[in-house]
Every structure is written in C-alpha cells, then in structure tokens.
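Batch manifest, entry 17 of 40.
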Amino acid sequence: MASVDVDIKKLLEAGAHFGHKTSRWHPKMAQYIHSKRGGSHIIDLTKTVSSLESALNFLENTAAEGKQILIVGTKRQAHDVAKQIAENTKQPFVVERWLGGMLTNRNTIGGRVKHLKDLEGKMESGALATKYNKLEVQRFQEEIDDMNHIYGGIKNLAAKPGAVFVFDVTHDVNAVREANKLGVPVVALVDTNADPSQVAYPIPANDDAIKAIQLIGSYVEAAITAGAAKAAKKSEAKSADKDEK
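Output type: structure tokens
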C-alpha cells in the first residue's frame, strides 16, 4: 500500500475529470469514461483514484529498491512541474526535447553525456582556462550550457531506469515507445485521446490542466520521496549490520 493518500475532491477541484472532445477520443479509454458533457468526455474519477493509487504504490516500491525513475514532461504545461519533481527527488528528467535513442541508443547518448561531463570537469578544474584564451573558454562554456539544456537532466541516468513517468503519452510517445522496447514500465497520465494499452500504469486524467498536472505531480513526488526514504533506511541498516560484524 502506498504511503500517499489520494483525495478525489482535490482531483475534482483541479479539473482532472475533464477529457477531450468526444470526436477526439480513443476507444480504449472507454473503460475510464464516466459520461459526456457539452461535447466532451468526462473521466470517471473513481477509476482515476484507484489507478493513481496503484501507480503511486509501484513508484514508491521502485524508489524503495533504489532504482531510478525517469520523469518526462516536454509539453509546456508539464515542463516546470516535471523538472521540479525530478530535482526535489534527485531523479533524472527530460523536459526540453526527447531525442531519439535517449533510452535505446545509450552508446551515442552516453558519448554526448561523457563529453559534457569531461568539459565540465575541465572547466571546473581550470584546465581550459590555462590552455585557451578567454574567448575560447567562453565558447566552451556556451557549449556546456547548450548541452546541459538538452542532456543536463540525464547526466546521471542509469543504463536502464526502474520506471519512466510521463505526463502526456501522446506528446511524448517516443519516450513511451523506447521504454516499452527496453521493457521499462511506464507510468503515465492518459487523457481521453490517449491509448492506455501502451502504459503499464495508466492514470486516467486531464493532461492539459495545469492544476491537475501539479496535483498529480505532487502525489508522484510524495511517492518517490517515501520510497527513497525506505531505500535510505535499508542502506543504513545494512551498514549497521556490516559494522557489527
């Protein structure tokens, strides 16, 4: 059971139940739809609560095992929320643009990240300043900044994270596809226009309303934080056992 309690009233207040126009629906979302109102679908929030609780339980357990959870939110509404969650929980993230192969082509992506880390190390140690003039050093700094914009969130990403959390599966469909290809479980918001069958833990909810994104994001952050605390406790217990031996 997850440590996080989901409040259906808060989901209602945040507008998590508002789906897309009925003309844009995905038939596989039928099980999560409560009714139609004004030409749009209304999501059944009782289904949202049960699905969200299952998802949070999985995320908490994943974090408790010491595994990474990659947070993906490249759409405008989710960008800041996704980055804040990742930074608060010390998890990897992608909020600018999903580059093809971020998960499935780790040789190429890993090479770019290694180059970035090497440049940062040389900049910090002063190695670049002693070898190059000020203009050249400035250009290296610009390169570092540009690369951090793209790769900064995955500098410490493991070869295979324990899970991927996605704020919009239609917007970040490539992230979902790559995770599925690697067998990495995907947890994601699925609006009425999305295909929930591509997601291991679908959370039926409005993926456009900022309040809904922020609320569900806060639940996700709390679950990961609770799991990380359990992982830290396990680690401390193991260290204590070693010391006694």
